[in-house]
Design a protein that fits this description.
Elements lengths: L3 H19 L3 H16 L6 H16 L8 H25 L12 H16 L16 H4 L2 H4 L1 H21 L4 H26 L7 E6 L11 H7 L7 H24 L4 E3 L5 E4 L3 H15 L2 E9 L7 E8 L5 E6 L7 H5 L9 E4 L2 E5 L8 H9 L4 E7 L5 H15 L3 E6 L2 E5 L5 E6 L8 E6 L6 H5 L2 H16 L1
Parallel strand pairs: 1-2, 2-4, 3-4, 8-9, 9-10
Antiparallel strand pairs: 1-13, 4-5, 5-6, 7-8, 10-11, 11-12
Length: 486
């Protein structure tokens, strides 16, 4: 019976944290972390970790059903690992025992552990930064700007440091001498960070050169359910080939005609979503010639999300982005480097690990595709090459479209590079280097799903782009030192 109160706090905190990841509700994540921590610290040392892990597993198993692209045993494995990595920082904090002491150093154990675990998880597990609590702060621009200095990890540190500091005050009283210095230290850092973030956004220039860009989408009624998947996998029966060829020819005309329409409406850059232009490998050269003529005739940059199918091969799928300049020259032909674990990874050919950046008269343009954007260290290559615009075609599903769209605002802030995002089955949109939304269009909304937007061209220098994950590695070293001293 003595465990009911702490367990209630843990469950309430997990529920708030989970809700903040899905909706999001930024403040709920801060409150949820505090409740989880206080409940965990109120349980016996050897009871807290399994209780927290079990509660997290049950809540995630229900809430992540439509988010995780896995089923059966694979889904359970993902849930077990996610629950374990969420529980681990609290277990380290509980086992350390320093939380019972006072002073600023006692409040740093949890944030150091949380950053280290989240960071190492992003480097080891295939889900990368998906599930980071930093993403719950989307929309709070002053807090989001911390990513320009320390990446997601600075935001994670501040959130979890808030929990450990407020828990100390909870236990000793807000007015107690034990809580005074930790509260003052945290409050000073919090105020400096948020005021600096507010100023950074407030003084952001608005007179930067812009490029009129458009993102167009595929027709919604051309293919029957499951047909795109069969084509992508190369599972085409000979008897079905004529009808498939007819549909693909209609698809090709749709995108080229749509690109001409947007060009004549003033677009200088037209982007197609990820793998939206499906084509058999033997037909690709002729289509690329048509696309080159379209770009040259209309004087546009044409960024095509393409899925090239090699029939009869073990890995038949090339997920690529081809960028053609206004002279009709192919300047980028990029293969996606990070497939979504599971189905896509089983059929997709991988790129060479490099993110391409090409100089143009309008600025240096970079290209990545969908899941590539979940890896900050990969996208940082664009900043290292002084890119002025990142073109990012994606292909989502309905349940994750909002969260995935919001994640890419953080990539813009980290690198200081504006992003033009074209989404199939998701949200097309554009961000400036400060993570502000310039425009968006939802595939699932009624009416025309074309996005037109003025995208600023030109990057801004950020500390994170220069130092990378140095702060996260510092936390890893801090955790290692903490564990050796336990």
């Amino acid at each position: 019976m003595a465990y009911i109160g702490p367990l209630t706090l843990v469950i309430a905190g997990l529920t708030l944290l989970d809700a903040s990841m899905h909706l999001p509700i930024p403040a709920a994540a801060w409150i949820g972390l505090l409740l989880m921590l206080h409940g965990s610290r109120s349980l016996p040392t050897f009871v807290a970790p399994p209780c927290l892990w079990l509660a997290a597993a049950l809540i995630l198993a229900v809430s992540e059903r439509d988010w995780i692209p896995a089923s059966g045993a694979a889904y359970l494995v993902v849930i077990v690992l996610a629950s374990f990595t969420l529980m681990l920082p609290f277990a380290i904090d509980r086992a350390n025992g320093l939380f019972a002491s006072v002073g600023v150093s006692a409040t740093l154990i949890l944030p150091v552990a949380f950053v280290a675990v989240e960071f190492l998880r992003s480097r080891v597990l295939p889900n990368a930064t998906w599930g980071s609590i930093a993403y719950t702060q989307y929309g709070v621009l002053p807090v989001m700007q911390i990513a320009a200095v320390a990446g997601l990890w600075g935001i994670v540190f501040l959130m979890t440091w808030s929990a450990s500091t407020l828990d100390l005050a909870w236990r000793h009283g807000l007015a107690s001498s034990a809580a005074r210095m930790p509260l003052l230290t945290f409050a000073s850092v919090f105020v400096v960070a948020t005021v600096a973030g507010t100023i950074r956004v407030a003084i952001a220039p608005t007179d930067r050169p812009t490029l009129r860009a458009a993102a167009i989408n595929r027709p919604i009624d051309l293919f029957v359910p499951g047909e795109i998947t069969r084509i992508t996998e190369g599972r085409i029966a000979p008897a079905d080939r004529p009808s498939i060829d007819t549909k693909l020819a209609t698809l090709h005309d749709w995108f080229l005609d749509g690109s001409r329409r947007e060009a004549r409406a003033g677009a200088r850059l037209v982007v197609w979503p990820e793998e939206s232009l499906l084509i058999f490998a033997g037909d690709e050269p002729a289509f690329l010639e048509r696309a080159r003529r379209t770009a040259a005739d209309e004087h546009i940059y044409l960024a095509m999300g393409m899925g090239t199918i090699h029939l009869g091969e073990p890995r038949p799928f090339e997920n690529k982005l081809v960028l053609i300049d206004p002279t009709g020259r192919i300047v980028i032909s990029y293969l996606k480097n990070h497939p979504v674990p599971g189905w896509e990874a089983s059929i997709m050919r991988l790129g060479d690990g490099r993110l391409p950046v090409v100089p143009t008269p309008e600025g240096r343009m970079a290209a990545a595709i969908c899941y590539d954007g979940s890896f900050p260290e990969f996208i940082r290559q664009a900043a290292a090459s002084a890119a002025d615009l990142l073109i990012l075609p994606v292909n989502d599903w309905k349940a994750v479209r909002t969260a995935h769209f919001q994640m890419h605002a953080f990539r813009a802030i980290e690198t200081g590079i504006p992003i033009m995002r074209a989404g199939a089955s998701g949200i097309s949109g554009a961000f400036d280097p400060w993570g502000r939304v310039l425009g968006f269009s939802d595939f699932f909304a009624p009416g025309d799903r074309t996005l037109t937007v003025q995208v600023p061209v030109g990057g801004v220098r950020t500390i994170y782009a220069r130092t990378g994950d140095a702060f996260a590695w510092l936390c890893v070293a801090g955790l290692a030192l903490t564990v050796t001293m336990m």
